[in-house]
Write a structure and sequence with these properties.
Length: 125
């Protein structure tokens, strides 16, 4: 029989892999091969550790919880359009050279655009 920590680790991995969609706790129990009682305890422990969040959801006329990861792994897709990826000055760019990310307008513009897409307009508050 797997240890509690092993099950917690496996549960966290399953929840993290669902990304922003999350999954119903009953789906998690099924994937873990755990009872609903055991599964509920695992979800509560993960929530109390700040690793997941639970949101109440009505499913087939019954209240249950959907489990979401609090942290998602970084994706390569998040930097595919970064100007540094195809920059002709990439080889000469560095923290101490004449061409540096600290003063790069292309990088600054991209960072501001990306932040705005994620968090909304930065200059309207
Ligand atoms: S920081 Fe600017 S200059 Fe440097 S590699 Fe990125 S886009 Fe090019």
């Amino acid at each position: 029989m797997p240890k509690h920590n092993d099950l917690e680790q496996k549960a966290l991995q399953i929840i993290t892999n669902t990304g922003k969609d999350g999954l119903l706790q009953s789906e998690l129990w099924r994937k873990l091969g755990a009872s609903s009682r055991e599964g509920s305890r695992i979800a509560l422990r993960l929530e109390s550790k700040g690793l997941i969040r639970r949101e109440k959801e009505l499913c087939n006329g019954r209240w249950t919880y959907r489990l979401y990861p609090k942290r998602l792994p970084a994706s390569i897709n998040s930097i595919l359009d970064c100007p540094c990826m195809m920059c002709p000055d990439g080889q000469r760019c560095g923290p101490t050279g004449a061409i540096t990310p600290q003063t790069c307008e292309k990088l600054t513009d991209w960072l501001l655009r990306t932040a705005e897409n994620h968090y909304g307009s930065l200059g309207d508050s």
